[in-house]
Amino acid sequence: MLVAQRIVEGINKRGNKVGDKLPPERVMLEDYEIGRGTLRESLRFLELQGVIALKPGPGGGPIVQQPDGMGLATAITLLLQFENAPFRTIVEARTALEPMMAKLAADRISEEQLAKLEYSVDNMRENLDDEEVFVEMSRVFHDTIAQGSGNALFGYLIHALLDMLDGSAVGMEYPERHRVATCDIHEKIYRAVAAGDAAAALTAMEEHIDAIWRYEEKHYPEVLDTPIAWGTRG
C-alpha cells in the first residue's frame, strides 16, 4: 500500500496524463528500493483501483488511466451489505444529495454539460415508448447534474449510487404515465439550471426525488426493503 501511494505521488509529480507510460520496472525498483514481487503487487493493486492498466508484451508496462466510480460503488456496496442495509438507504441518500447538486449546477454547469442535459431530455421525450431508452437517459440526466455541480465528490457519489440502484436491474418497471411525468420534471429542472436559477433548480429536484420516493414506496416497497448485496444486478 505504501509503495502504491508512492507510485501515485510520482504520477502527480511528473504530471503524467492518461495514456502515459510509467518508468520501466528496473527504474522503479531502484527508486523505491523494493523487490520485484512487492512492486508487481503494488501495480496490481493500482490496476484494480483503475489508476493504471498493465499492458502486456514488448513495449508494454503500466499505463496511466482515469479511475472511474466502479471501485467506489463496490466499496459502498460491501460496506452496506455487511450492515444489512436495504435499498431504501440509497434512495434516502439521493433525497438528501441531489437537490443540492441541482442548486450548484445552476451556478457551475458548463455549456457542454448543459447541452448533454438537454440531449437527455429531448431523447427521452422522443422515445417515451422505449423503457430502455428511458432508463438510460434518466441515468445520463442525473449523472450530468452531479458532474455539473462542479463538486467532484458529488459526481462520483451519484454515479456509484445509480450503479447500485439501477431500477431495471432490481425489478422496477416504469409505465408510460410515469415516463411522461419524469420527462416533464427533467425538463423543468433543465430549464432552471439553464437559466441559472439555483433556488428553482433545487425545488424542482426536490419535487422529482420526492416523486421517485413515493412511486417506489407505493409500488415496490419489497424492493426498497431488500438488503443490498454485491452482485445483485443483472
From TrEMBL:
InterPro entries: GntR_C (IPR011711), TF_FadR/GntR_C (IPR008920), Tscrpt_reg_HTH_GntR (IPR000524), WH-like_DNA-bd_sf (IPR036388), WH_DNA-bd_sf (IPR036390). Keywords: DNA-binding, Transcription, Transcription regulation. GO terms for molecular function: DNA binding; DNA-binding transcription factor activity. The keyword Glycosyltransferase does not apply. SUPFAM superfamilies: GntR ligand-binding domain-like, Winged helix' DNA-binding domain. Residues 1-67 form the HTH gntR-type domain. The keyword Transcription regulation applies. It holds the Pfam family FCD. Gene3D superfamilies: GntR ligand-binding domain-like, Winged helix-like DNA-binding domain superfamily/Winged helix DNA-binding domain. This is HTH gntR-type domain-containing protein.
